[in-house]
Specification:
Number of strands: 19
Bound molecules: guanosine-5'-diphosphate, 6-O-phosphoryl inosine monophosphate, magnesium ion
Helix content: 25-40%
CATH topology of the largest domain: Adenylosuccinate Synthetase, Chain A, domain 3
CATH class of the largest domain: Alpha Beta
Number of domains: 2
Strand content: 15-25%
Radius of gyration: 22 Å
Distance between the termini: 16 Å
Largest sheet: 10 strands, mixed
Structural class: alpha/beta
Strand order of the largest sheet: 9-7-5-2-10-1-11-14-18-19
Length: 424
């Protein structure tokens, strides 16, 4: 059973990278399947902190082949910068492979992201402004340029010029500053293409060869279930499919090859950007979660919105992704709380329901129904065995398992790579 998928079960930043880093030690390939450099994946290893945006989190292991698969949108400038920064810290990135079928994020995509957010005014999505939505929009309307297009330099120049001129007309029409298309062509079809070319590969073939060889493959989700373009809180979502189904489309690995699907769940909830958030805390407890959990975006530095754990959301994530298990992260952030609340149901127009609503207006109107747990008020730091968790912390883990019906296989008790309780 060779393929493991790691998926965020909330609105992102659940601590996916830390669990991927842990699982990568016994996988051979670690593969990003969607999103782009809107992701901020943090690994803390031996006191060193690595914040990755595009390069898969397995890169720190010399036995792992990191792969950026077809479903990702690639900003080559960020990619090269990340490779340079990792290389400067002694991380070997030479094994990295980037799909020829992945779409490129180009300078006009950044311009369109900014212009669109500006025009939305108070209704803005709060995107990361990394050009993600416009790049996926171009892919969907069949106007994108792909990484493999860099291999035919003359044609790549023509594609960039033609598209760049058309995009400039649109940007100016929308009130933006025109881009220097000639300079973009020189840069992208010159130094950038030179440096990206050695990494370009047929990753679908590479992954299937690896499967045939019995290699163990780990698929690294970015963003999360409720940022999914279909199943998330649309329009306050990203433009890709982070859910497990997206892992198949984004890699070319068929659904029957997926075995473990691990949902990463923070012991509370956070969200960056706009959109409904039923269990949000806007009081001192919310501030405490920000302070203790260091809830500031890795990519944009934005303060994350915080709230209690929401189990109707998590149960829905279990169904949407066929989750086989949960990693409950950042439980230690709740160490000092006198009372920990967990939302087990919603109240909608006086009626209690465990069902996650299909409409944004309904979600915005739900009232959470909470179970209150007494806080454990002791540090979880250093705990590595489930039986060593304080009874009150264990009660929270048990409640999650009972309510969602799948095992909690990992419990995060600190940021460091080793700070995790694992159960067989
Ligand atoms: P990702 O996007 O899902 O990979 O998560 P991020 O890296 O954006 O955010 C998670 C943050 O929490 C990072 O700073 C991690 O180092 C940190 N983290 C991960 N797991 C734990 C944990 O169990 N406890 C604590 N205290 N921090 C954690
Ligand atoms: P990781 O992988 C949290 C959010 C943005 C915004 C919305 C759309 O680190 O969990 P986009 O730039 O994708 O068009 O923005 O999605 N968002 C994330 N929030 N974690 C992320 O990634 C995110 N990637 C995008 O804040 O609300
Ligand atoms: Mg993140």
């Amino acid at each position: 059973m060779p393929v493991t998928v790691v998926v965020g079960s909330q609105w992102g930043d659940e601590g996916k990278a830390k669990i991927i880093d842990l699982l990568a030690s016994d996988h051979d390939l670690v593969v990003r399947y969607q999103g782009g450099h809107n992701a901020g994946h943090t690994i803390v290893a031996g006191g060193e902190k690595y914040a990755l945006q595009l390069v898969p989190s397995g890169v720190l292991y010399s036995h792992v082949t990191p792969v950026i698969a077809n479903g990702v949108v690639v900003d080559p400038v960020t990619l090269l910068d990340e490779i340079d920064r990792l290389t400067a810290r002694g991380v070997d990135c030479s094994r990295l492979r980037v799909s020829s079928q992945a779409h490129l994020i180009l300078p006009w995509h950044f311009a369109h992201d900014r212009l669109a957010e500006g025009r939305r005014g108070d209704n803005k999505i709060g995107t990361t402004l990394k050009g993600i939505g416009p790049a996926y929009a171009d892919k969907a309307r069949r106007a994108g340029i792909r990484v493999g297009d860099m291999l035919d330099r003359a044609r790549f120049r023509e594609q960039l010029s033609a598209l760049g001129d058309a995009e400039n007309d649109l940007i100016v029409h929308l009130g933006g500053e025109p881009l220097d298309v000639a300079a973009i062509v020189e840069q992208y079809a010159g130094a950038i293409a030179d440096r990206v070319t050695p990494y370009i590969a047929n990753t679908v073939a590479l992954l299937h060869d690896a499967l045939a060889d019995g290699s163990r493959i780990l698929l690294e989700g970015a963003q999360a279930t409720f940022l999914d373009i279909d199943h998330g809180t649309y329009p306050y979502v990203t433009s890709s499919s982070p859910t497990a189904g997206g892992a198949c489309i984004g890699t070319g690995i068929g659904p029957r090859d997926l075995s473990r699907i691990v949902g990463i769940t923070k012991a509370y909830t956070t969200r960056v950007g706009s959109g409904p958030f039923p269990t949000e805390l806007t009081d001192a407890l919310g501030d405490a979660l920000v302070d203790i959990g260091r809830e500031f975006g890795t990519v944009t530095g934005r303060r994350r919105r915080t709230g209690w754990l929401d189990l109707p959301m998590l149960r829905h994530a279990v169904r949407l992704n066929s989750l086989t298990e949960i990693a409950l992260t950042k439980l230690d952030v709740l160490d000092t709380f006198e009372r920990v609340r967990v939302c087990t149901e919603y109240r909608v127009q006086g009626r209690r329901t465990g069902e996650y609503p299909d409409r944004l207006d309904l979600l915005a109107a739900v009232e959470p129904v909470y179970v209150d747990l007494p806080g454990w008020q002791t540090s979880l730091e250093g705990i590595r065995r489930i039986e060593d968790l304080p009874v009150r912390a264990r009660a929270m883990v048990d409640l999650v398992e009972q309510e969602v019906g799948i095992p909690v296989r990992y419990v995060g008790v600190g940021a460091d790579r080793d700070a995790v309780v694992q159960r067989s």
